[in-house]
TrEMBL record:
Keywords: Membrane, Signal, Transmembrane, Transmembrane helix. Residues 374-411 form the V-type proton ATPase subunit S1/VOA1 transmembrane domain. GO terms for molecular function: ATPase activator activity. This is V-type proton ATPase subunit S1. It comes from Cryptotermes secundus. Residues 1-24 form the signal peptide. InterPro entries: Ac45_acc_su, VAS1/VOA1_TM, VAS1_LD. Pfam families: Ac45-VOA1_TM, VAS1_LD. It is a single-pass membrane protein. Residues 257-357 form the V-type proton ATPase subunit S1 luminal domain. The keyword Isomerase does not apply. The chain crosses the membrane at residues 379-400. Belongs to the vacuolar ATPase subunit S1 family.
Length: 423
């Protein structure tokens, strides 16, 4: 009996190890492209299929076997990589892999597999097929093999101290493009692989998200719908083009590139820019940020100066915000609803407005000071419903506790009252 129990325990432990290992496997994306097309037979991967290590090894070996002679294989490896890295875009809708996209556009064949378990382990099986494994430590001294049958592994550097993820992926994008172009110019057949060791899309589960911060990496294109004014110490953003309403006439403003200028004094900072409209006029807006004198440690956006850039229009109008725009220093101000600046017969409206002056680095907004009050309508509704339910529960408990049984005149030592069936 004890022997059977021990066998059962061993079998159960094996199942736990196998199942736990399969559930804990790390799936990463793999991008494969070829410089030349060896045959007309295309070996492609099914879309959205999850590849195990063995499946990917078989797929890649079949792809290499289509070549007449062994090609040169170059593997670019990130420590962390995910599908979201390939689909990420900044405010100007630019990806972090512009050079890689150009390389893929000219490649003979491209395969993107979104989920592969341990692809580097699968590639190591090429050594059994006669491929030489070569790890590149220094790109400056990298030697291109004179013949194929070599697997060159380039491990990408991690991010630097002052880099966020899009920054160092863009740096790696340039590196991949330059290395691949060099190999293609000196080798006949090149098969490139771009993958990672671990998935990078795990940050939202491990770190609390305090506020969604917009990464401002490049200036938007002239035809972008967003408005982004970026100087050395001031950031201003709106999710849509600003709108001016003057004497019931609406104008849509489009920020003109290379017109953003900054001024600074001991008491204020300002940023000035030119905007085109749906008419022939050009509008100049200047935002004035002040150190708050009433609340030390705070900054405020006091007003916006508005005037038409024309010799015939010299009158400047000072627009003030409908509600005060104030935030602590080293914090940004954000308002998801409309932000309106007004004067007589004129209003300037921004959608999803966010601004921050007195910045040391202007790559991203700091944590936001939101315009919405803490007790929003949904919170008030929740508190109201909760209070009603709490009152009903307390009333019910009070009613239950107030119940009195009718046994106060019973004698516990007396004879028990019995009633027969016949009665």
């Amino acid at each position: 009996m004890a022997g059977r129990r021990m066998c059962f325990d061993i079998f159960f432990c094996c199942l736990v190890v196998i199942f736990g290992g399969s559930c804990g496997a790390e799936f990463v994306p793999v991008l494969v492209w070829e410089s030349n097309k060896p045959t007309d037979v295309q070996i492609s991967s099914p879309a959205l299929k999850k590849y195990s290590t063995d499946d990917f090894a078989d797929f890649f070996i079949n792809k290499l076997s289509a070549f007449g002679k062994k090609p040169l294989v170059v593997v670019f490896t990130e420590e962390n990589l995910s599908v979201e890295d390939f689909s990420w875009q900044d405010l100007a809708e630019n990806s972090v892999f512009p050079h890689l996209e150009s390389v893929i556009a000219t490649a003979a064949n491209v395969d993107f597999i979104p989920s592969v378990s341990n692809p580097l382990k699968a590639l190591q099986r090429l050594e059994k097929l006669g491929y030489q494994w070569q790890t590149v430590r220094d790109l400056e001294t990298m030697n291109v093999p004179e013949h194929g049958g070599v697997v060159m592994v380039l491990e990408m550097e991690n991010a630097k101290v002052d880099e966020d993820r899009p920054d160092f992926l863009r740096r790696h994008d340039c590196l991949i493009s330059s290395v691949y172009s060099r190999l293609v110019s000196q080798a006949d057949d090149v098969v490139a692989v771009y993958t990672g060791r671990y998935s990078s899309w795990i940050e939202p589960e491990n770190e609390p998200v305090l506020h969604r911060v917009r990464r401002l990496l490049v200036e938007p294109a002239p035809n972008a719908t967003v408005m982004l004014m970026n100087t050395s110490s001031i950031l201003i953003y709106a999710s849509d083009k600003p709108q001016v309403t003057e004497s019931d006439i609406k104008k849509i403003l489009t920020l003109l590139p290379d017109t953003v200028k900054r001024k600074e004094s001991a008491t204020y900072q300002s940023v000035r820019a030119k905007f085109s409209t749906n008419s022939t006029d050009q509008i100049i807006l200047e935002f004035f940020f002040f150190n708050s004198t009433s609340s030390p440690g705070y900054w405020s956006l006091e007003n916006v100066t508005y005037y038409i850039n024309s010799p015939n229009h010299t009158n400047k109008m000072v627009l003030t915000p409908e509600s005060g725009i104030v935030a602590p220093v080293m914090f940004s101000y954000h308002c998801s609803s409309k932000t309106v600046f007004k004067a007589v017969n004129i209003s300037l409206t921004f959608q999803n407005f966010q601004a921050q002056p007195y910045m040391e680095k202007t790559k991203a907004f700091d944590d936001a000071y939101n315009c919405e009050l803490f007790f929003t309508p949904p919170i008030w509704s929740g508190l109201f419903v909760t209070s009603i339910l709490a009152f009903i529960m307390m009333w019910g408990l009070a009613m239950i506790m107030d119940i009195r049984t009718m046994d106060q005149y019973d004698d516990p030592k007396g004879k028990t009252i019995t009633i027969s069936v016949s009665e």
